[in-house]
Specification:
- The protein has about 375 residues and is an all-alpha fold.
- The chain folds into four domains: about 5-20 and about 25-120, Tetratricopeptide repeat domain (Serine Threonine Protein Phosphatase 5, Tetratricopeptide repeat, Alpha Horseshoe); about 195-210 and about 230-270, no CATH class; about 275-340, no CATH class; about 345-379.
- It has helices at about 5-15, 25-45, 50-65, 70-80, 85-100, 105-120, 125-135, 140-150, 155-170, 175-185, 190-205, 205-220, 225-240, 255-270, 275-290, 290-305, 310-320, 330-340, and strands at about 345-350, 355, 370-375.
- Strands 2-1-3 form a three-stranded antiparallel β-sheet, with no helix packed on it.
- Helix 3 (about 50-65) packs antiparallel against helix 4 (about 70-80) and helix 9 runs antiparallel to helix 10 (about 175-185).
- The longest helix is centred in the first third of the chain and has 23 residues, at about 25-45.
- It is elongated and about 85 Å long.
């Protein structure tokens, strides 16, 4: 019987034993399905020890359960089998590489993938595993090379930008700029590469460079993704404040220089057609400088463009409350609701609906690239 039929048989046999109940029932059912499939495949291996495909399937199930040692043992037993077809041996080495990677044995994982590629060639599967392995090891340039060979320009630019960031942090702007240029050559609309340039201009305190870079960046990337630049800009400004001691390893800048950077940023953003998020971030920049009047002006503009933009309305209410005479009780209640509203996750993956309070370039749930959106409407 083919191994996939055995797997389905295991799933069918496990169903009567699944535990009822709304809490954790789905997870318990899936776990029992997998254990039942392992039992069926183990029995099939005992009945037919020459079936390589069943061994491979059983090893994959062990890996999915986190039983890495058992998975590795199965792969090694196949690889050591005399007379095994070279293609099946290479497939076993490929799966062994996945096992080692799952177990955190990165050097062994890379060697297993290289052994597999000696027979199978540099297939896209192997290139992808080597790219992920390089990224996990912090070898961003190597990861970019693998993605480039696969023609995945977004991922290639992403890791080139990360390599640029490493050079900037090490005080080597020449190499950093070199990798930024490579990233933009691979994918001109890369928000990661433009973000690295914007952050570097901010941390260097060069307001004219920041204005020009931010304008070019906003012109190059899609409007719905511009907030990625502006979130990074605000973080870099915060890290550069003297009172923060130049947090995150950044050199501190005097208040006057920070004000120049804020003004240059607003000038760059104001040059574009009215946009809800650009108006909101102009307001955030003025709030960063405690310029409440200009902040109110830009928040009101954002709400004219989108009356349902909940975060702009929240900021505006916060500012207006300072001018209102409220009872102590009502002020406490408003502060409570505003505090909890701020904790609402602002970012969402348009591919799978995953929500998070931090920006991301690859969705942590579905692994889609550049699928992030800013939640403008509260739901």
């Amino acid at each position: 019987m083919p191994w996939n039929e055995l797997f389905r048989l295991g799933r069918r046999k496990s169903k009567p034993h699944s535990l009822p109940g709304p809490s954790g029932a789905g997870e318990q059912h899936t776990l029992q399905d997998t254990r039942a499939a392992i039992e069926e495949l183990s029995q099939a291996v005992r009945n037919n020890p020459e079936s390589v495909e069943i061994y491979l399937a059983l090893g994959n199930l062990y890996r999915s359960q986190g039983e890495i040692e058992r998975a590795i043992h199965i792969r090694n037993s196949l690889i050591a089998r005399p007379g095994l077809d070279p293609a099946l041996k290479a497939r076993s080495q490929f799966e062994l590489g996945r096992d080692f990677r799952r177990g955190g044995m990165l050097d062994k994982s890379r060697q297993a993938f290289e052994d597999a590629s000696a027979v199978l060639g540099r297939t896209e599967e192997i290139e992808l595993e080597l790219a992920r392995l390089a990224a996990d090891s912090g070898e961003f340039e190597r990861a970019a090379e693998h993605y480039g060979r696969m023609g995945r320009a977004m991922a290639e630019a992403h890791f080139l930008a990360r390599q640029a960031g490493e050079h900037f942090r090490q005080g080597d702007p020449v190499q950093g700029e070199k990798f930024i240029r490579q990233a933009l050559a691979a994918f001109p609309a890369s928000p990661e590469a433009w973000l690295a340039s914007v952050v570097q201009a901010t941390l260097s305190g060069n307001s004219e460079q920041l204005r020009a870079t931010l304008h070019s960046a906003c012109a190059a990337i899609p409007a719905p993704q511009r907030f990625l630049l502006l979130e990074g800009l605000l973080e870099a400004l915060s890290a550069s404040r003297v009172e923060n001691g130049g947090g995150s390893g950044a050199a501190s800048l005097p208040r006057e220089r920070i004000s120049e950077l804020v003004q240059a940023s607003v000038q760059a953003l104001a040059a574009f057609p009215p946009d809800t998020l650009l108006c909101y971030y102009c307001a955030k920049l003025f709030l960063f400088e405690a310029d409440l009047e200009n902040a109110k002006h830009w928040l009101e503009k954002a709400l004219v463009l989108n009356a349902d933009f909940w975060l702009a309305r929240l900021e505006l209410v916060t500012l207006v409350l300072t001018d209102q005479e409220l009872t102590h009780f009502l002020r406490d209640q408003m502060a409570y609701f505003i505090c909890h509203a701020r904790k609402s996750k602002r970012f969402v993956c348009q591919a799978c609906g995953f929500r998070w309070d931090k920006t991301f370039f690859v969705c942590p749930r579905c692994r889609s690239w550049h699928s992030i959106l800013f939640r403008q409407e509260f739901s």
